[in-house]
Write a structure and sequence with these properties.
Length: 100
Amino acid sequence: MDIAEAQRLAWENKLTKGFNTADIALEFGLLNAEVGEAFTAWRKGLPDAGEELADVFLYLVALAQMQNVDLAHEVTRKIEKNSHREYAPGTNGTLQRVEG
């Protein structure tokens, strides 16, 4: 399955089940909660960590659909943009973008 198909299916599920399709601020909050659940599952080594990451993805693609964003296109564009960026260690040792 590709991103566009996942976005379509996530949106259809929201429509079919009567989930939020209009309140973008609420959806960002719910996405944030799902990220927290995924982090907790990872931190505790729970067997459903993958399912929690899938929830994050599904909330993300539905949020993109709520804003009429073609997420597949945007991800492709961003990966291309990132491929041309260069990074170097900063003063504190973390990587910082130096070009691109």
